[in-house]
Design brief:
5 helices
Length: 320
């Protein structure tokens, strides 16, 4: 059901929905206006094609970034706190590994590394083992990388199919629109109401939206090890990981905001912690919490990681 909502509905709105408007009453525009909309439409379709190409290229750009951090990053030893097999990549197990290391300001932090183990016989990711990392000193994407890792970009075959389909669709929609709507008047059917013009706008909006909520341009090899966050932006989480400082804090109160996403409630948390100068800082954040986890929420002491340059950026776990 979730797959239908995440991919079926976008396909419906991007490709099926515009077709129904081909048989609506046509509003004809002046030749100059129609030509302007023809040019704008071509630009919009090109932008949409480029967004899809960006999704195809992303794994290769990410590989290049990891390689740069491997060459220029600050070396640090990370300790394996725990590991579990979560998937299988061909013949190799895929692990989620909880690591602990000192960040760029010397503060101990935790992170979850997701990786395939091509040498399981060496037991490299057992609890207590050391993993050599490189920390990004110039950027936040990615915040760190494993020295010995070889990042293998996924071959996004379905994305290539999508790109070719999108190009063919853009041409076919124009030709079909011309056939049914031109009435011997050329492309004067083009205007803001023409499906061929507004269809790429809908598509661009959907791609940008899904890229953000699904993390289509994220790095699935790295995950936050903290349960609660004041932000979900990967750049902010990377800043916290690389430059954050630890603090003791407390959840003062929490309550539902009345907002639901996928039937999961949004909760507002009011917290307090002391910064590096011993000054109490009060802050709040909202977060979507699964219904099955609501019973575990409580007022309690917390172990918090915050950014000194921005006290409203933090992430934390319960202390007990």
């Amino acid at each position: 059901m979730q797959l239908v909502l995440l991919f079926g509905l976008p396909f419906l709105f991007m490709y099926i929905f515009p077709v129904f408007f081909l048989w609506k009453d046509t509003l004809y525009t002046k030749p100059v206006v129609a030509t302007v909309f023809l040019g704008l439409g071509i630009i919009l379709w090109l932008v949409k094609h480029l967004l899809i190409i960006g999704l195809i290229r992303h794994p290769y750009k990410l590989k290049k970034k990891h390689k740069k951090v491997q060459e220029t990053g600050r070396p640090v030893q990370a300790k394996v706190l725990s590991s579990e097999i979560v998937d299988q990549d061909g013949d190799y197990p895929v692990y989620n590994i909880l690591l602990s290391f000192n960040n760029l300001v010397g503060n101990p932090v935790r992170t979850i590394l997701r990786t395939s183990d091509t040498k399981p016989h060496e037991r490299r990711f057992e609890t207590g083992k050391q993993v050599e990392l490189r920390l990004n000193q110039t950027d936040f994407d990615p915040p760190y990388t494993v020295v010995t890792a070889q990042y293998a970009p996924a071959k996004r075959i379905l994305h290539w199919v999508w790109l070719f389909f999108d190009i063919a669709y853009s041409i076919a929609l124009f030709l079909v629109s011309y056939h049914f709507q031109s009435e011997g008047m050329g492309w004067r059917f083009l205007g803001p109401q023409a499906p061929w013009f507004w269809a790429p706008i809908v598509g661009i909006s959907i791609i940008v939206f899904l890229s953000k909520i699904l993390g289509l341009k994220g790095d699935d090899t790295q995950q936050s090890a903290y349960e609660f966050h004041s932000t979900s932006k990967s750049k902010d989480l990377a800043q916290l990981l690389l430059h954050g400082r630890s603090a003791d804090g407390e959840v003062l109160s929490f309550s539902q905001t009345g907002t639901y996403i996928n039937e999961q409630p949004e909760i507002r948390f009011n917290i307090q912690y002391e910064n590096e100068h011993g000054v109490p800082v009060r802050a709040y954040h909202t977060q979507i919490i699964s219904l099955v986890d609501l019973h575990s929420l409580r007022k309690a002491k917390i172990d918090l990681l915050y950014l000194p340059s921005n006290p409203n950026l933090f992430m934390y776990d319960y202390a007990d």
